[in-house]
Amino acid sequence: MSQPKVFITRRLPIELEQLQQIATVEVWTFRQPPPDDVLLEKVKAIDGLLCLLTDKIDRQLIAAGTSLKVISQMAVGYDNIDVAAATARGIPVGHTPGVLTDATADFTWALLMAAARRVVEADRFTRAGEWRTWEPDLLLGADMAGATLGIVGFGRIGQAVARRAKGFEMRILYASRQRCDRQLEQSLGVEFADFEQLLQQSDFVTIHTPLSEETYHLVSERQFALMKPTAILINTARGGIVDPDALYRALSSRQIAGAAIDVTEPEPIPINSPLLSLDNLIIAPHIGSASYKTRSKMAEMAIANLIAGLQREVLPNCVNPEVYPEN
Q1: Cα(26)–Cα(19) distance, rounded to whole angstroms?
Q2: Less crowded by CB within 10 Å, the N or C end of the chain?
Q3: What is the pTM of this model?
Q4: Which of 152, 159, 149 is nearest to 177 (CA)?
Q5: Positive or negative CA dihedral for 266, 119, 101, 50?
Q6: Which DSSP helix (H) or strand (E) runs through 221?
């Protein structure tokens, strides 16, 4: 009996021996993701697909995968996958939740602190030879201790950000579709607020909600108008949650003081984007989970989902458990 065939859309930060023992594995070794037409051709001959959030796994591609038994994504989010189409075909979709919570929360704080204290600007200033002497008003930034932090989306990452904020003795507001348990609120020292109230009162606003039809351009012209002129926006969730044109206008007009983002719309950000001209914006290349430990664990989880799917077992982390008869 021949081994099942697997296609992995990028090099992973772990060895693949366990997978190679049960499957014939092909890895896309180029830095850029496989073009749509290449991925469409590949999927026609495989049993398992391990993909990234940069891969478009739409209805057409899923339909072309006539032998496809499992789709395993190395990411928490899966807005790039047509899960309904996969479910209709009985194909389980795996993802990697939980593992990147701390890494992303840490990076959120790295961005928040860098934006507040203008670290990137200061580095550029120094490298340009502009540092001549100590000056009382040079590169003044925002204080974090005692400030108000607004957290939009209060899942695992939002809660981890709140735990870190307690160390700065911040007032912490959160906005979410559902209010969390009062005991959890007490333990984290957070206050539930509606979205507009949060925007109006926060010195820092950090986004941790999934991208969906409801949250697409959740932060746009109207929302920026509600924010303080001293406010700083942080986005480590998905680029599409923030309207990039509105962000440019808010920053260039100093409607808000600054922003730091790890995600853009589109990704990667076009080299001619006006956002790249702003000195009050920090842009990172989607590296919120980019620690050695976290990325290795994500890859391991993605492989575990893939192997389970190939062996017709329940995926350890399944997005659409309804594909299993017992559900």
Answers
A1: 11
A2: N
A3: 0.92
A4: 152
A5: positive
A6: helix 221-226
Rounded Cα distance between 263 and 242, Å, is: 9
Separation of CA 273 from chain center: 20
**C-alpha atoms less than 13 angstroms from C-alpha of 35 in its C-beta half-sphere:** 2
Active site residues: 238, 267, 286
Segment (H or E) for 184: helix 182-188
pLDDT tens series, the chain, 327 aa: 689 999 999 999 999 999 999 999 999 999 999 999 999 999 999 999 999 999 999 999 999 999 999 999 999 999 999 999 999 999 999 999 999 999 999 999 999 999 999 999 999 999 999 999 999 999 999 999 999 999 999 999 999 999 999 999 999 999 999 999 999 999 999 999 999 999 999 999 999 999 999 999 999 999 999 999 999 999 999 999 999 999 999 999 999 999 999 999 999 999 999 999 999 999 999 999 999 999 999 999 999 999 999 999 999 999 999 999 875
